[in-house]
Input
Amino acid sequence: MFDSWETMQSLAVLVPALPLLGAVLTAILGPRILKSRAHWPVVLGLTGSAVAALCLLIGVNRQAAQGAFADDPASSRLTLWEWASVDPAMPAPAALRQASGTMAEAAAQVPFHIDITLRIDPLTALMLAMVTLVSTLVAIYSIGYMHGERGYWRYFSYVGLFVFSMTMLVSVSNFLLLYVFWYQKPAAAAAGKKAFLVNRVGDFGFALGVFLIWTTYGTLNFHDTKLPDGQAIPGVLGQTRLASLAASGADQEHDPDHSAPHDAAHAPARKPPAESLYVGGGWFGIGTAICLLLLVGACGKSAQFPLHVWLPDAMEGPTPVSALIHAATMVTAGIYLVVRCTPLFFASPEAQLVVSVIGGVTALMAAIIAVTQTDLKRVLAYSTVSQLGYMFLGLGTCTLIGATSGIFHLMTHAFFKALLFLGAGSVMHSLGGVIDMRRFSGLRHKMPVTCWTFLIGCLALAGVLPFAGFWSKDMILAAVHERAHEGGSFTLAGQSIFHWLYWIGTGTALLTAFYTFRAFFLAFFGPERFPGELDHPPHESPPNMTLPLAILAAFAAGLGVVCEWTGWFDKLLLKTPSLAFAAFHETAEVGFHPHIAAISTVTVLIGIGLAAFFYLGERTQIDRIAAWVRPLYRASYGKLWFDEIYDALIVKPLWILARLAYVVDRYLIDGIVNTIGRLPVWTGALLRPFQNGQIQSYALAMILGALILLGTLALRP
Amino acid sequence: MNEVALLRSLLAIGAILFATGVIGLLTRRNLIVMFLSAELSLQGIAVSLVAWSRYHNNFGGQMLVIFIIAVAACEAAIALALFVKLFHDRGTLDVVAWQTLREENLPPHIDIEVPEPEAREEKWPELTPAGREPAPNLQQQRHRARV
Amino acid sequence: MSDMPITLEAWLTQNAPRVLSYPVATLLVGVGLWLVLPRGRRGGRAVGAVLLLVGLGMLAARLPMLGDWKYETVLWLLGGITVVSGIGTISMRSPVYCALWFALALLGTGALFMFVGAQFLGIATVVVYAGAIVVTFLFVLMLAQPEGQDFYDRLSWEPLLSALTGAVMILLLSLALESSLGGTAAAELAAKSPTPQALEKGILAPQHVASIGGVLFSKYLIAVQVAGVLLLVALVGASAIVVYQRNPAAGSADAGQGGRS
Output
């Protein structure tokens, strides 16, 4: 019943509008009138928004099943209002000029046209549903967590604004607006200096990417735009370009037989279609540059190497905020960007490689650091970074299974990471703010609900059958494996780079399981020990905190099974116009790969076993091992010294430069200015002795003047 | 008579008088003498004017000299009134006494050596004795200190 | 004033007297002036006087002759007296002596005026200037300096600088006179000079005072009136200054009684 376009358009407006309304109401009425009930507008708004998103999802599912998205219909977009339209701004950019036939002539002069358009397509609907659902549960949790805090209303107002910007971000159909909401989110969240600065670096890259898109493709819209005067501008991700990608994809050679062993040396090289309207260009081409710049933005937002340093330090805020930001929303913006721009990445295999490599490296590195951290929230933060690395790894393969796995992992990760964060928040709440695992243990009897939901989250994170994480992680590893065997021109020591990445992914899975269960055993098992300053023993959290935990646990447990057994997720996602082009569908198909699954399950069980061995019983062995690998331990504990390296490489030189600038400004420039200012003083000092108060001196001066005149007259030749 | 030569001679005399007056104005420290030197300058100008009057056969120069005399008289009156006032304030006619209108960090003009007046022998005139001589004192005349 | 290129040697030969005499004369005049000015206890005034005379004589030697030796003698005499009196005015160590020498200078200028034919002015100078103004000076001197002189009369302010200035001034004036009235210009000037007949009709007319009166009260009438007003203003001003000096608050009340003049 939700599948009429008008209904879906109304729902698409409601989803961002309700949280905004809630936030505004809370801001206005919160301080005075509502006080401790200030959460109601926001919670109600978020709930309504979640319901609307679910309805939208249902409607989209129906329409997609009927194939309505195949030609990117105009009714799947709702133009709210036209923001700017400037007449011919520049001559037709390169990509347009290369196109054949009528399009080049028609679009000889490209006007600058921005309108605020909301998209309705499967990717957007899925992201909206996930974001609003998790945000609602976090908001309900916050009622209990933030109870009695100062600034109660402000917190909820921010949450509402934050959700508004996130929903708008995934709904808009234009790169410029994407950038606006991308930037808006740090402003809404309580970001520290480091977070803000690192994000700025990412935003800078993103902005450059957007500029390049504008100069190359002539427009910033995703969709094809029709101007009132009849001009048609093909959008960056519009049907015109995607069709060209599809049409020329038939030229590509592809061996559909996966079972035959492939050798990297003999397999056909994977290259973008020759005559598509997307620009590639090799390592130094424009297309690669665009993709890499967008990647810089995504790395900044999603905390990938080398811009990951802000995420663990942003744990200072309240735990629900951490949950919201780091689990569900802010970090997923980068992933969303890369998935949305799949056609752009498809045209540039070099950029794909970079994405995957960065993802893999980040995943491994964050896992290494997480092994030795003692702060529970920090373990979860590094775990988030690591899982995001996984998602990038999957997306970088730029295959069907890769893209699907990335988004799927994003969704499952949102649920179980939010669950883990909220569980940690519950622990913190009952222990009076203590979260250092060295100071407490054995909480499972005092806080059973928290403990068992936390266990479910851990199992999902580690990727144990049948929890959600297993399905998604398995799909990612399968994607990488397929890509490794597909062949390509990127090899290292005889094997495709993706082959090495596959092993890195598997190793990271081991480490993930290890540190996750290390944290679980340390916190909830062992002798009962509580921090000294508590005046009463810890107790379970109130129902408005445990209920969201339970709901999230249910999702974490069941989502994977539901999606994979029915397969609706894959089918739905692949109807998204950006991912629907035929050439893409030629690449590896989605399916279940038993041998990959087996390898990953074994790895995970080894990891859990190691954790149990070291942390479940006595804890003496771990100290001996730690003594053997002292340097590794210290490297891991010190976060691989990234902060120190950045401090030395970037902060210190900048500080020195600033000092230098200060010295130059203070002494050189001020010196020059002061000297110029002193000139009248010196001139006065020179001339002052003439005023000595003696009349005859003045008379002498006058006479000398007269003499000079006289001399001039007398001695004229 | 060679009129041009007469002209030149008188002009030369006038010039020298003018220069002399200027030097006196610059050098002397007594207010009165400074003013006298200024008047001397003025006289030099008057001589020049009369010379030109003679050469041009015109009374214009002489007229101007008449007015110069009149103006010099007024000027002298005012100047002397002012000198009297200034003398009343400082008790001296030295122009160096009035040097306060100067920059703060400049030193005042101070006389290093103050020359003493030349010692003149005061020779008072002697009057011849007049009138009758007093009566002789017989007692004094007959007194013998020693016999 | 010649614009033909001329060799240095020829120019020197042509202008040697002028070129040589001026620097020497100026030097003599300068040194003489310096020596003659009152400089405390130091002497050398007689030498200075001699040097001055020599220098000025050198300058005067450049002047052309009048034509008639009688007139020439009288002119040199009168001019000499005037100049010497002028030097005397500025170099005496007692201000009373300065005033007296000044009176003599005035007599000299008066005589010069009469020599040139401006008898009225000659008499006027002697009567008004020497008779009234100098006497007023002496009055004030007697009031202010009963001893007749003070230490500051024996000192000069920067005698060297002043002597130099004076010498340079004399030099420049002489050069100016020479360049504009001597040499090639002399012939033109001589052509324009008045003849004795014209002079008889002009400023040497027999009714001298009547002529002066006629011009004064016809052509310069307004100037006469203005001069009269000026004299009145000066009178009032001088009185006001003196009265205020004695009693600043009661200046208007004391207007009748007034102060010493």
Q: What stands out?
A: Chain A has a mean pLDDT of 80. The two ends of chain A are 114 Å apart (CA to CA).
